[in-house]
Amino acid sequence: MLLTFEQAKQNILQTSSTATLPEHETVSLTEALDRITAAPIISPINVPRFDNSAMDGYAVRLADIEQSRTLPVSNAVFAGDDISNLNWPIGSCLRIMTGAPVPDGADAVVMQEHTQATEQSVTFLKEIKAGDNIRRIGEDVKKDAITVAKGQRLSIPALSTLATLGIHQVSVFRKLKVAIFSTGNELTSIDKPLSNSSAIYDSNGFTLKLLLTKLNCQIVDLGIIPDNPNLIKQALITASKQADLIITSGGVSVGDADYTKTALEALGKINFWKIAMKPGKPFAFGKIGNALFCGLPGNPVSTMVTFYQLVQPLISILSGLEPLTMDLTFQVRTATDLKKSVGRMDFQRGILQVNANGELEVMSTGQQGSHITQTFNKANCFILLEQERDKVTKGEFVTVSLFSALLK
Fold first, then answer.
1. Number of DSSP helices (H) and strands (E) in the chain, helices first
2. Which of 271-275, 330-334, 368-372 has the lowest mean pLDDT?
3. Cα separations in angstroms, 206 against 150, 263, 351
């Protein structure tokens, strides 16, 4: 009996959660984009480091304002000024610029647009409240606070924050090593001419390298392996010694020349083979030595769907990324009929759009065969059709999940 998609995914996640995480390494901030933090990053300073002005305007004491709405200007403060010896008499205000330090005793900064100034004085036109337009010390980041937790992907905003703290090195997990190869006598590398009338290009190998590069993995590319049991077995042995994860495409179906599954049985362990999902039924998961193994189907669409739905979350965990929240899904009406048979979870490619009534709706990208790559080129989401669901009629509600950045 086939595993359901959810059973297969849980098997993968549970197995990966017990795997040993990659070693730590220290890298410069300029090399840390998309790396996974191996330890919490603690702020060494407050941000802002001092109370400062959020506006160009005037620093005031509320007690002075209560005495008079018009005050003389006694001094000016600019960003970067040392105000340790600032002269600010009672009964006066200070001209102050954005980012400039706010002196002790100042209750508020009044933006210049709310004042009327002459050469000698300033009149304050609107109500003033304590704390107006003052950025307080530590308001953004407090000293000794965890700025980035362990197991987080370092995005550009996160790295920008670390730069404001003066942090120039971070501890991250080593990049996950992933070995890949494609199997099949019919395959030809994309940089070579097709050898005969039945040859095809190895688009899967190319696609896997793009996906793994986007996930910041270190790739061990073993190329194309012919349909030869001994060569496939040797490739798996080589891959298991060099990588944390092995990904193959092809060779896990039920044909006479599908040798990858047989080699995996001989060398390691198969957790499961074949899932009640479409596309992607012939998907194998197991282990060879210390390396986990994912055998993807040979059809291009099946390769991309199974990678996205099953391999991507596996790589996240093996890379040290903290478990992600559930994918964002929502219910919308379908603008087209959808072909579907009971028995398998179906991941159809769709176009989520706003119709003439301003409502979200989804339509099919057309033929959903596992060899029709154009379905991905046009799509921006998956239409998730439950295993027990039959064909869908236009106007029915379906579940959709927008593509993540991996497919954009």
1. 9, 27
2. 368-372
3. 32, 23, 25
Q: Which of 116, 135, 154 is the last residue of a domain?
A: 135
Helix axes 260-267, 229-242, angle to 10 degrees: 60
Residues 88 and 98 in one domain: yes
Same domain, 287 and 190: yes
Structure confidence at residue 255 (pLDDT): 61
Strand-pair partners of 247: 180, 294
Return the exposure string of 209-218: e unless at least 16 CB atoms fall within 10 Å of the residue's CB, then b.
Answer: eebbeebbbb
Q: At residue 322, what is the residue type?
A: E
223 within domain boundaries: yes
pLDDT of residue 325: 62
My answer on whether 199 and 181 are in the same domain is: yes
The residue count of the chain comes to 408
Q: How far apart are CA 363 and CA 383, in angstroms?
A: 9
CB 283 within 8 A of CB 370: no
Q: What is the pTM of this model?
A: 0.89
Question: Chain-centre distance of CA 163, in angstroms?
Answer: 21
- Same domain for 370 and 235? no
Tokens of 201: 């290009």
109-114, long-range: CB within 8 Å, 24+ apart, which pairs? Answer: 109/53, 109/54, 109/55, 109/57, 109/58, 109/59, 109/60, 109/133, 109/134, 110/57, 110/58, 110/60, 111/55, 111/56, 111/57, 112/55, 112/56, 112/57, 112/58, 114/57
Residues 355, 335: contact at Cβ < 8 Å?
A: yes
Range of the domain at 106: 52-135
Look at residues 272, 290, 318 and tell me which one is the last residue of a structural domain. Answer: 318
